[in-house]
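Thread: heme C complex, take 2
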Amino acid sequence: MMNTRLAIPALTVVILLASCKKETVEPDFSDDYKAGGATTIHSAGPDAYTFPLANIDGAGLARHTEADALFEQQFVTAPAIRFGGLGPLFNQNACQSCHIRNGRSQPPVSPSDQASGLLIRLSVPGSGEHGGPAPVPGFGGQFQPKAIFGGVPEGKLAWTEMQQIVQFLDGGTATLTRAEYRIEEPYQPLPQGILYSPRNAPPVFGLGLLEAVPEEDILALADENDADGDGISGKPNRVWDVAAGRTALGRFGWKAGSPTLDQQTAEAFSQDMGISSVFYFPQESCTGQSNCTGGIGDEPDIARETVETTAFYAMSLAPPAPRNLEDPQVQRGKMLFLDAGCNNCHVPTLTTGNHPLSALSYQTIHPYTDLLLHDMGEDLADNRPDFEAGGREWRTAPLWGVGLTQVVNPNARFLHDGRAATLEEAVLWHGGEAEESREHFRKLPAEERAALLAFLKAL
Ligand code: HEC
Ligand code: HEC
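Output below.
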């Protein structure tokens, strides 16, 4: 008896010492400021997403400047001496009309809202060429609500809003709103049972770094059958690489449906602007449709070089450095982010390999993504497969620079369809593999929820 009694206080002292020691270790955030390694720029203003890589050389800077002009260029109807080829059908006439100040677009506020960059991908069930989505006869793979003079647009966008209330454990509530989109007044009857995927334009900085992360590093994070039993699988998308003529890892877009920045850019020219390109997409996006009249020449609208120079813009835009990381609330928020398991998908640190643009090579970066697909539950599902990505699966959105989203564009919103007006709403929409994480957040007291959100705001 005596011995046991004596043993208890002794043990208690040891435990106390151990926990004291743990608490006095200062978290080291100094490296976290270098979101993009040596490429990182320091700006927290409305133009925070518009700077070239901090370590780019003179030749790179000259190409970046040329590319910037192409990204801002408003394309016009053919025939034009320069920058012609818009349409016949299109969504917007310039890259930056959707990627506002290189950040996000906003969902439409009214059916006649011309400024919205939200687009709707369309398909019929099953798969099309090379295992991609199957286009809708008469409408293709994307809804184009605009046509050049004399052309017939595909129809009008309409939607119904739905709300749901989330109850926090400590009493408060949040109201979540989302829109279900449909096409009204189609130029010809829409086939039954078509699949819709609304997509809001994401920001375009830091993407060269994501392209430079070695494929094997991304695959090493995948756990498709959840072998480690943590409830998080993570699966690579496998898509068609037009330039390589083979299947490749998907990296870009909300479902990682595109393998390279060159191809993503050529797809944007083709699908979003109706501009065909040599080598990538030589045919008009509406070829074969009965409303595809006017503006069609025999030649593709732009050269392969124009596509690749435009892609260089996104490739060479720097991620902005985080702010206020020493703030105790932000530090607490980072701990809570890790406690909630957000980092299982939003992986804080990746390393780039060799890249033809040397400024991007061998950088330790903090993008907060694994570039993998995750089942995000029924509420976020679009129920439209995109290569290997299922209807409930989305690529982990990178969180670097996310805190500056509404500084860059006050009307910008979060998640693939822009349904979340705030970072808090974005977290509350998480489900599926992220349900446990979301529940962790929902059950936190208000003060700790605020700390976690302060950390996201600092990124
Ligand atoms: C009509 C609006 C619109 C226009 C115009 C547009 N984009 Fe996009 N962009 C989007 C949307 C929406 C996505 C997400 C697509 C997806 O999920 O597949 C996107 C994705 C991207 C991405 C990938 C971002 C990422 O994080 O993976 C890049 C790069 C990009 N666009 C570049 C361009 C370029 C270059 C142009 C001009 C040639 C352009 N965009 C024109 C709406 C637009
Ligand atoms: C299972 C993987 C997973 C986990 C765990 C997870 N996320 Fe996400 N997160 C995603 C995916 C995938 C998206 C994109 C979903 C979409 O757009 O529909 C996303 C989107 C977001 C966005 C919006 C980003 C944008 O660009 O609009 C924020 C903010 C975010 N997550 C924060 C968090 C936080 C905070 C946690 C922890 C409480 C967390 N996430 C846990 C996978 C995850």
